[in-house]
Design brief:
By secondary structure, the protein is mostly helical. The protein has one domain: Alpha Horseshoe (Serine Threonine Protein Phosphatase 5, Tetratricopeptide repeat). The protein has 21 helices and eight strands. It is globular. 48% of the residues are buried.
Length: 522
């Protein structure tokens, strides 16, 4: 009996040993990926697409177009649900960017950074990931203020499912640190990322991109910490973008889904009747006309659509700058005096108002992310604010304007403007040191609107105060007739992350409303 018991124990031991030997290898599905096998370059491409507004939540349409473009008086619309035009609150629209960015951009970029951490074969990819993360979070915090940052995207890696909200001040200090470290760690002799849709892995261009991003982050602080802004402006002297060839933009494909330029869906009629009733604002058109701007005849057209509901474009649309006409903001389709577009002196029919050029609204067109013009305008502002930086404000201003006039060919060759036209424009509108900050930041607004980056136009207006805009005072608006200063947190946070959401919303200067202010906007 003891013999049989001993034999059974021996056989079970042999069996268990044979099962546990090479257990991981035997029980790993050879057809599946793991972190060591997965190519994180795919995450970079996907994150760049998401940052360009490709998420299914429609954050680009709701946040960038419906709200930002009309609040900043780049575009105007008479449709009721274009609430930014009238300073009304739609929580679903104002919270769309927060929800979309964390679900897609933040999650993916954190994955990229975790997968590439301490892996020498992805050294440059990791540093580019740090730059992308900084760019992503700068926009999130600029729109909302205090947001989850240090614990964001760490559910899988650190079991943090309810991230705390970090102060914008702490976020900005870390953004400066992260970008500076990442730029310094980039090395052209190391890996060339294959998933880079901006520069095709050109590390030298990423270095210039990173330094321009560092300047942009620093210059946000001119109200609250000008000394720190100046310090970083000095650090990046001579290291920022060199020309329009350094413009960071993503070229899409006309193939539907995530690869097409969804930012322009609203301009093409893919989102309903918006395209017929969405026009350049009279504020924008009047500024270009009054300065004889050569960009006007490229970015604006009249009679593009002749009747509502028809997506058929008129092939004989008009580009003549003399007939371009912007539509006033804060109007509707009622019969109320002062509010009705039909009773406005400018009204002669919707086709007569200026639409965005169809060459800027192509499904396979570019989404601009960061440009040489922005870089040069920020340097010109730094030079104007701090003469001891020994920078020539006029030189950098002129570089910026020439670049903004001539970059349009990157949309389509049909929009090309000659260098001579750019020179002539500067001769007519020379740099004025006496009103430098207004000139520089008004041009920043023009350029941001032309790149369809209305987020940036609105954010920089909040920082600089330029251009000087006359707000609308539509009935029942929620700001008291003042241009909104931030987006309220999405209502979903109240149920998903209630304790941290309440602390953050209670601390907003001016309340968690469209009138509240972020930290750097004090």
């Amino acid at each position: 009996m003891r013999y049989y018991i001993f034999l059974m124990i021996f056989l079970v031991g042999v069996f268990l040993n044979s099962c546990t030997k090479d257990f991981d290898k035997i029980n790993t599905n050879p057809t599946t990926y793991n972190a060591a096998e997965f190519d994180p370059n795919y995450l970079l491409t996907s994150t760049q697409l998401d940052y360009a507004g490709m998420t299914a939540t429609g954050d680009a349409i709701r946040g960038n177009f419906i709200y930002s473009s009309t609040m900043i008086q780049g575009l105007a619309s008479v449709l009721d649900f274009w609430v930014g035009d009238k300073y009304l609150l739609n929580e679903q629209y104002s919270g769309a960017y927060f929800e979309g960015a964390y679900q897609t951009q933040v999650k993916k970029i954190v994955d990229l950074l975790e997968i590439t951490r301490e892996r020498e074969e992805f050294s440059n990819l990791h540093q580019i990931g740090r730059l992308m993360k900084a760019m992503i979070f700068q926009r999130i915090t600029d729109l909302y203020g205090d947001v989850p940052y240090f614990e964001a995207g760490k559910g899988y890696y650190a079991n943090v499912y309810f991230p705390s909200y970090d102060s914008q001040e702490k976020i900005y200090l870390d953004l400066l640190k992260e970008v500076e470290e990442a730029v310094n760690a980039l090395n052209p002799a190391k890996d060339i990322p294959t998933g880079d849709a901006y520069y095709n892995g050109n590390i030298t261009q990423w270095e210039r991109f990173g330094n321009t991003l560092l300047l942009k982050i620093a210059m946000r602080l001119t109200k609250v910490n000008p000394a720190l802004a100046k310090e970083y402006a000095n650090k990046v002297k001579g290291k920022t973008m060199n020309s329009n060839n350094d413009n960071a933009y993503l070229v899409h494909e006309d193939a539907g889904g995530a690869v097409e330029n969804r930012n322009t869906r609203v301009l093409n009629g893919d989102e309903g009747p918006d395209y017929f009733y969405l026009k350049w604002s009279d504020t924008f058109i009047d500024y270009l006309k009054s300065h004889n701007d050569p960009r006007l005849g490229k970015v604006a057209v009249t009679k593009l659509y002749l009747e509502s509901g028809s997506k058929q474009r008129n092939p004989n649309y008009v580009t003549d700058p003399a007939v371009q006409k912007g539509m006033p903001n804060g109007k509707d389709q009622s019969d109320r005096v002062g509010l009705s577009i039909y009773l406005d002196p400018s009204y002669t029919g919707f086709p007569d108002y200026s639409s965005v050029s169809p060459f800027m609204a192509k499904k396979d067109g570019p989404t601009f992310v960061l440009t040489y013009t922005e870089s040069e305008l920020l340097i010109a502002e730094a030079a104007s604010r701090w003469p001891d930086l020994n920078l020539d404000a006029e030189e950098h201003y002129n570089n910026a304007i020439k670049a903004s006039v001539t970059f349009l060919s990157q949309y389509d060759p049909a929009l090309s403007v000659s260098e001579q036209d750019a020179e002539d424009y500067l001769d007519e509108n020379p740099f004025d040191a006496g009103s430098a900050l207004e000139n520089i930041n008004t041009q920043y607004w023009v350029h941001s609107c032309i790149t369809l980056n209305f987020y940036e136009a609105w954010i920089n207006w909040r920082r600089s105060g330029f251009p000087v805009l006359v707000p609308v005072n539509y009935p029942n608006n929620v700001t008291g007739g003042t241009i909104p200063r931030r987006f309220p947190y999405p209502l979903s946070e109240a149920s998903i992350n209630p304790d941290n959401y309440k602390k953050a919303s209670d601390s907003v200067n001016g309340g968690d409303t469209l009138k509240g202010k972020v930290w750097w906007d004090q």
